[in-house]
Specification:
Layout: H1 8-25, H2 27-32, H3 46-55, H4 61-73, E1 79-81, H5 87-91, H6 100-114, E2 117-122, E3 132-137, E4 141-149, E5 152-167, E6 174-185, E7 191-201, E8 204-213, E9 216-217, E10 220-221, E11 227-230, H7 245-268, E12 272-276, E13 301-305, H8 311-328, H9 344-379, E14 387-389, H10 401-412, H11 418-427, H12 437-468
Antiparallel strand pairs: 1-14, 2-3, 2-11, 4-5, 5-6, 6-7, 7-8, 9-10, 12-13
Helix pairs in contact: 1-4, 1-7, 4-6, 6-9, 7-8, 10-11, 11-12
């Protein structure tokens, strides 16, 4: 089999991924796909279909929803703990100048949108260079194979597609070509990377190995493939359902209905004249407008064809219904603001489904990013704890003045401990999120201690001043 052989799960899902990618990208990508997303009505020639396609309007619910959900996770900065020696690495995790936070946002966006992605930790052969991270979208992870080792399922081989570019023969243009990166083990069970370039000769496709290397640290080979799969639920190779696929399907159905409505409006918006009983009608110039005279045959009659019935109303109602479906499937940003205020419990229940999915994605991607950073640190010989925690608080939960006052009063009255009060203050976004309760408590104690020392110093200073004042004595007569 050739190196570009696709896994059966990839074959099964690639059309769906194309649909999602187009829907999220927006109107231009959807229309560029032509009949794939907007079938040609029977009887239309190429010109009529182009006009039909041009009049269609795409409602960008999928893209806006994806951006909104990513924004919800990154409403607060991730909580990150890494060894001090990794500070420079975190400022440029890809060797292209991309900081870790931006890389994390890209990874989350891929999982929310496609339901799949992957991170490769790579390092040049020998001691030259350093480790770096590379993000692969679902469409680039074309094949993989696992095996059982010591009772666990481990990755045995994975094939990644990459598109590279080089100068054309004239030195000015750009030629794009395909390469396939194969991650596997050699005969010594050492991790090996091979890169194949795709070529074509007389209509036949062939592949040439252009690079092979064994990433290592000071001569020590790796006995694992440093690639971590990302999905909404776990870090395993099987393909999971995209969180957006149901929304995308309704979004594209809405697009087709919108196209039919625009076409119907175009065809029926202007009344059309008709003549009955006119002799030699084909020889006349039937212009319409002021100053135009029609000479009709005896007994001929005229009229105007106008649209009647409820057909367009049905299309408009269908659009409204599908917009409501998209809102229920996660496109909360598309809903019009209600004129009446909703109860807090109602809002909480309406958002609970989306929050649970987002929380799972945030936790899973956090685990994947942590694993990738741990590999990179080990490759660079850096020791120490690594912790990555993406935000799972997606709603603005700041305490209002009344709630803050009630909370402090409850603490002062002894109804709750100081740790509980600090916990609620932090959840209410009144305290910095990157400190845990113990750290906040230590800071309060330190500040209180410093304040006590200052107060005592002021008291001592006052006493010294009193000693320097003249003393008055009562002298008896």
């Amino acid at each position: 089999m050739p190196v570009n052989q696709q896994h059966r799960e990839y074959e099964k899902n690639k059309n769906q991924w194309k649909r999602i990618r187009d829907a999220v990208s927006g109107e231009d990508a959807v229309k560029d796909a032509g009949v794939e997303h907007l079938p040609r009505p029977a009887g239309q020639d190429n010109y009529d279909y182009k006009q039909y396609l041009k009049r269609a309007m795409y409602y960008g619910a999928s893209g806006r929803t994806s951006q909104g959900l990513v924004g919800a996770i990154f409403r607060k900065d991730p909580t990150i703990e890494t060894p001090a020696k990794m500070a420079e690495f975190m400022e440029n995790v890809t060797l292209t100048g991309l900081p870790f936070n931006n890389f994390a946002k890209m990874a989350v966006e891929e999982v929310i949108t496609m339901g799949r992605g992957g991170i490769l930790v790579d390092r040049p052969s020998g001691d030259a260079g350093r480790a770096y991270l590379r993000l692969y979208p679902a469409e680039s992870i074309i094949n993989w194979r696992t095996t059982e080792k010591d009772g666990s399922e481990v990755l045995e081989q994975i094939v990644l597609h990459e598109e590279r570019q080089r100068a054309d023969n004239d030195g000015f243009g750009t030629e794009f070509y395909n390469v396939y990166r194969v991650l596997s083990f050699d005969e010594t069970d050492g991790y090996t990377v091979r890169v194949f370039e795709e070529g074509e000769d007389e209509g036949e496709t062939f592949f040439t190995e252009i690079e092979q290397y064994q990433p290592n640290r000071r001569g020590e080979r790796f006995d694992y493939i440093p690639f971590v799969f990302l999905s909404p639920n776990d870090l395993t190779p099987p393909v999971d359902k995209s969180p957006l696929i149901d929304l995308v399907n309704v979004n594209l159905s809405h697009y087709r209905t919108q196209a039919d409505l625009e076409q119907a409006n175009y065809l029926t918006s202007s009344p059309t004249p008709y003549i009955i009983g006119q002799k030699n009608a084909e020889q006349a110039n039937w212009s319409i407008g002021s100053g135009t005279i029609w000479f009709l045959s005896e007994g001929a009659s005229t009229g105007m064809l106008e649209y009647t019935g409820g057909g367009l109303t049905y299309l408009e109602q269908s659009l409204d219904r599908k917009q409501g479906m998209m809102a229920l499937l996660g496109a909360r940003l598309l809903e019009e603001s209600k004129r009446t205020a909703e109860a807090a419990e109602t809002v909480r229940l309406r958002g609970s489904g989306e929050s649970s999915i987002l929380a799972s994605i945030a936790d899973t991607v956090s685990d994947g990013l942590k694993k990738a950073l741990e590999w990179a640190a080990a490759w660079e010989g850096v020791s120490g704890d690594i912790s990555i925690e993406l935000n799972t608080d997606f709603m603005d939960a700041k305490l209002n003045p009344q709630e803050l006052t009630a909370l402090v009063q409850a603490w002062q009255a002894g109804a709750m401990g100081q740790a509980d009060m600090l916990y609620n203050l932090q959840r209410g976004e009144m305290l910095r999120p990157d400190y845990d309760i113990d750290m906040i408590q230590d800071e309060i104690d330190a500040e209180n201690g410093a304040t006590s020392e200052r107060n005592q110093a002021d008291i001592d200073a006052d006493d010294d001043d009193d000693d320097d004042q003249p003393q008055l004595a009562l002298v008896g007569e």
